[in-house]
Design a protein that fits this description.
alpha/beta; 38% helix; single chain; nicotinate phosphoribosyltransferase; seven-stranded antiparallel beta sheet
């Protein structure tokens, strides 16, 4: 538990707006929703990650006396407002999809029901946690699929965005499909299996490569992986590994080798041949060297005999995609008479026009359990609509335009947004990371392979119900009529 996590972890404008809500007596009930606008990496899916970290941190999100003294020193906050912040805690409700769910643009991933001040102050924290972990989990899932669902070792600590970024990345990478991490602290904190081989420095610290391998094998006979590219992979490294490997084999131990440079396909094929001819078909091959899903996909399809993929920088930083496009928008507010009034953001860019009201998300599956489409419906208890098996519906494009299709639900309609926090308290204990990781793998299998392609994936439909479309069009008409 993050005891006393500072509520200063927010943007200044959230604090200045909060003071405005407080001073103008506007601190009424509101609903905010977090969604994202586009798939990262040009992919066909993303992975929802960071929820349990968010829930844990929200429980400790508060202002210390030093935090309040700092705010006071800025000269822009009134003393009575600072007094109000002394007792600040998140006391609202939070609905969310299961962590590890396969997700798509425009649909709400998280719904926050709280007063305006609470909803506003947690915005930065929520987006920071969920955006980063979802980015890394998505990248890892792509690497996992590209490897043919092989073994992935995450070792990006030294290139991650700071200590907290490294920890969050290790957690998210494990959720996304990594088998383990090189980050020892992540192993302790999250219970992730820790993995590692050796660095070139170990080998160069000895006068002879074979001597270095033998010394390491003596220390760690049950987990020896020789790094064979320090001098010359085929003329020296693999030969030295065989010498030390034969001594391990005589003691009943297996070993592996690692390639960290050069033409990975050519070298892995040659190393595999040499190992097999020497009588070590069970010796493993690990490869690294700034890998990403595109390189892994190419090597896998070319038949490179790789047992474990070591992926660091490209996985824990997002590689060519620096951020997840998650946003947090007001969708309903108290009308002053005890009811929630839907609101929406308009924009000259249609992509940035939001969908109003309290919403629920449903995943429609066929009779075999394969996902067909996600549908947003009204989730307002006073105006909710549900989807039932056996009925025929018309589903509309999220922009509310003419694009639509008819569908009879012959399989199942699964509700995705579920209550997680009620009155500021978690409704249940967190699932294990292994449970979340399994949800990712099972979830990916429930989609047609065309949606999981690394390049040019099929676009999965996210739609909205007739009732939600009508609400959106009514608000657009009202706005245009007033302007």
């Amino acid at each position: 538990m993050n005891a006393g996590f500072s509520a200063l972890f927010t943007d200044l404008y959230s604090l200045t707006m909060a003071q405005g809500y407080w001073k103008n007596r506007m601190n009424r009930r509101a609903v905010f929703e977090m969604f994202f606008r586009r798939q990262p990496f040009g992919g066909g899916f993303s992975i929802f990650a960071g929820l349990e970290t968010l829930i844990e941190t929200l429980a400790a999100f508060s202002f210390s006396s030093r935090d309040l003294a700092y705010l006071d020193s800025l000269g822009i906050f009134e003393e009575p407002f600072l007094e109000y912040l002394k007792d600040f805690r998140f006391s609202g409700n939070l609905w969310a999809m299961d962590e590890g769910t396969v997700i798509f643009p425009q649909e709400p991933l998280i719904r926050v029901e709280a007063d305006l001040i609470e909803s506003q102050l947690i915005e930065g924290l929520l987006l920071n946690i969920v955006n980063f972990q979802s980015l890394v989990a998505t990248k890892t899932a792509r690497v996992y699929l590209a490897s043919g669902k092989g073994s992935i070792m995450e070792f990006g600590l030294r290139r991650a965005q700071g200590p907290d970024g490294a920890l969050s990345a290790s957690r998210a990478a494990f959720i996304g499909g990594a088998s383990g991490t090189s980050n020892a602290l992540a192993g302790k904190v999250y219970g992730i299996p820790v993995m590692g081989t050796m660095a070139h420095a170990w080998i160069m610290s000895f006068g002879d490569e074979t001597e270095a391998f033998r010394a390491y094998a003596k220390l760690y006979p049950g987990r020896t992986v020789f790094l064979i590219d320090t001098y010359d992979t085929l003329k020296s490294g693999i030969r030295s590994a065989l010498k030390a490997g034969r001594e391990l084999a005589a003691a009943g131990k297996n070993f592996g080798v690692r390639l960290d440079s050069g033409d990975i396909h050519y070298l892995s094929v040659e190393v595999r041949r040499i190992l097999n001819e020497a009588g070590f078909p069970g010796a493993t091959i690990t490869v690294s060297n700034d890998l990403d899903e595109y390189i892994v996909d190419t090597l896998t399809k070319a038949g490179a005999p790789v047992d474990t993929w070591g992926v660091g920088t490209q996985m824990v930083t997002g590689g060519n995609e620096s951020a997840f496009s998650g946003v947090y928008k007001l969708s309903a507010r108290d009308d002053g008479q005890g009811s929630l009034a839907p609101v929406m953001k308009f924009s000259d860019n249609p992509e940035k026009t939001t969908t109003p009201g309290v919403k629920q998300v449903w995943r429609i599956r066929d009779e075999k359990g394969f996902a067909l489409t996600d549908v947003m419906t009204s989730g307002d208890p006073e105006n909710a609509d549900t989807l039932e098996e056996g009925r025929r519906y018309v589903f509309w494009h999220p922009q509310g335009d003419y694009r639509h299709f008819y569908h009879t639900i012959e399989g199942s309609a699964e509700v995705l947004l579920k209550p997680r926090i009620e009155g500021g308290l978690p409704r249940e204990g967190p699932p294990s990371l292994e449970t979340i990781r399994r949800k990712v793998k099972d979830g990916l299998e429930s989609f047609d392979p065309s949606y999981r392609r690394i390049l040019n994936p099929h676009i999965y439909k996210v739609s909205m119900s007739e009732k939600l479309r009508t609400l959106k069009l009514e608000l657009i008409k009202t706005y245009l009529g007033d302007h």
